Amino acid sequence: MRVENFVNIIGADFYTGVPDSQLKALCNYLMDTYGIDQKHHIIAANEGNCTALAAGYHLATGKVPVVYMQNSGEGNIINPVASLLNDKVYAIPMIFIVGWRGEPGVHDEPQHIYQGEVTVKLLEDMDIKTFILSKDTTEEELEAVMADFRKLLANGKQVAFVVRKGTLTDAPKVEYKNDNKMIREEIIKHIVKTTGEDPVVSTTGKPSRELFETRVVNGQSHKYDFLTVGSMGHTSSIALGVAINKPNQRIWCVDGDGAVLMHMGSMAVLGANKPKNIVHVVINNGAHETVGGMPTVASQIDFVAIAKACGYPNAVCVDNFDDLDRELEAAKSRNELSLIEVKCSIGAREDLGRPTTTALENKQNFMDYISKMR
């Protein structure tokens, strides 16, 4: 179905969401049509954030907003849906558009498998009427579904479209870029050169894929790394849990700007606890690049100032490899919590692979390795 026709049939004029590769056609259409515009389109930090923002839009306008997301974000909407939107509370109508990663019978990465199995059930358990949109759905069918959905929305209910892979088509081409010069995979190679045999906890998406391939190219073991293949935004908290229990071992956390934004409260917890053995590296390209390159707000904020305000004793920003190498070595030599923000370009090589070990193998190898540390 042409994405423009899909949007026209839905008939909403405000969208907020977290980008998803399954919904890239929709994301590109919104970026091409509106860009980031307070009146019509906002990319928020996480899906719960989107839901609350959309609720405010409804309170101010009386109109029905749309929230888009990957199905992995359903967990983030459960609280506002159940305790704010539900018709036993404020009866705030909302349309959710959910990209169906891990759909049963469709091959996908391990972090999507169970989420894919429970995607529709979770929505129905939250009393959200759901329609599965596929390549076979006609515009006439969609119009009939929307007619039924509008009756529910008029009564303060929420509805959802679960979108199968390849359903939305004919999106405009949008180029996502910035002026930064450093390439993320090269940044990760420099980090690996410094970390040596220290454990590394890496964030969701391409950074973990690039870390895995860097180890392959170097002929190194993958035992040093815990790859956070799902659970976006929680990498630094995983690193904190490891670091607290291995106080004599330096732990490196390789994070991304979109992930940090998604659950930024973790920085406050890190800063308050001040683990002396964590180096927190935030690779900031101002984009949700793993799912297509749509922008985050990270190019407009100061992670160094935020880290210092949260209690990090050390925080710096670098935009070139000489400074990066110097700050990595400085962080390695000190015995204090450190943050290094690295300004990064958007883009990755097209033949970037995926981990060839299973998630369970990754976990066990990492646990076996750090079990020998005090």
Describe what you observe in this structure.
With 374 residues, the protein is an alpha/beta fold. Helices cover 43% and strands 17% of the residues. A hairpin with a 5-residue loop joins β11 and β12. The mean pLDDT is 97.
Write a compact overview of the structure shown:
This protein has 374 residues and is an alpha/beta fold. The chain contains 14 helices and 14 strands. Helix 1 packs parallel to helix 6.
Write the layout of secondary structure elements.
Blueprint: H1 3-10, E1 15-17, H2 24-33, E2 41-43, H3 47-61, E3 66-70, H4 74-85, E4 94-99, H5 110-125, E5 129-133, H6 139-154, E6 158-163, H7 184-195, E7 200-202, H8 206-218, E8 225-227, H9 235-245, E9 251-256, H10 257-262, H11 265-273, E10 278-284, E11 287-288, E12 294-295, H12 303-310, E13 314-318, H13 321-333, E14 338-343, H14 359-370
Parallel strand pairs: 1-2, 1-3, 3-4, 4-6, 5-6, 7-8, 7-9, 9-10, 10-14, 13-14
Antiparallel strand pairs: 11-12
Helix pairs in contact: 1-6, 3-4, 7-8, 7-13, 11-12
